[in-house]
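User: Last request for today: this protein with N-carbamoyl-L-aspartate, please.
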Amino acid sequence: MVHPIKGDFFNKCIVSIDQFDKDDILILFKLASDYKFSFEKGEVFEDLKGKLLTVLFYEPSSRTFGSFIAAMERLGGQVIPIQGVSFSSVVKGETLEDTIRTFASYSDAIALRHSEDGAAVKAANISPIPIINAGDGTGEHPTQALLDLFTINDHLGRMESIHIAMIGDLKYGRTVHSLSKLLSLFPNITISFVAPVASPMPVEIVDLIKKRGVVINQRSKIEEVLEDVDVLYMTRIQKERMDKKTYESMKNAFILIGELANRMKKDSIIMHPLPRVGEITTDVDDNPRAVYLKHQMRNGMFVRMALLKLILLK
Ligand code: NCD
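Assistant: Here's the final one, the structure of the complex with N-carbamoyl-L-aspartate:
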């Protein structure tokens, strides 16, 4: 079942960022920082020795799939990796519920990626072991939001008083849904949404975060926000979630090139959940503001290590 964390992660399903409050974030990030610090010094961990995580991915992924596996194994745990369900009983018509029950009888938790919104809640409602939502359709991607905020804090040294621009497919991109809600827990947040007209941030999310005090700007070009923001968060157009015509109409809508990146504030950062498909040109990669390749992904492993530890051990 899905419950607020309220300081106690043990045995909980993580399906939405709505389960977290500020204190939960502080607990998680403290442990993630400790792991990061010790890991970078060469420490080897055995905290999750004897624990088994099923990493069950119904949608293509390499990064998040690998990140959950790395997190579990870096803590001495083990994984059942299932990717490409075309080789599994799912093609015989097995329901999600039955697949979850199956792997719940072998393992201690399941990281689930699925193409349907709400799949993680559905799984959590029947699972006897914790479900971690690793992305459900156009819904949420809570662990990505957590690693994104961890990275922001790592570079800016704060989680409040931030102006972030979210750029790209804000309707179908689940990472920005979770990240907007997560940021709204903190004071003095401004979010500038820059999206194609056909793919805006869902109105329920805009209303919710506005109620929590987030200042929202709707803009139509990167150039309109570039020089003002602390964080530029680029996303890809979610080709697989729309028809071909819609995709063609927005595919090159926003592209960050080196020359634009150079105009950003000195201490600002450029993020992307990846994969990118052309919306950040490679000449941006060596810009000191670019954290997507060098830091953001690696932080994902530390945040997932901390989350797995807190869920699996009392
Ligand atoms: C994102 C996802 O799957 O939602 N990728 C990821 O997990 N790092 C972003 C995307 O696919 O565009």
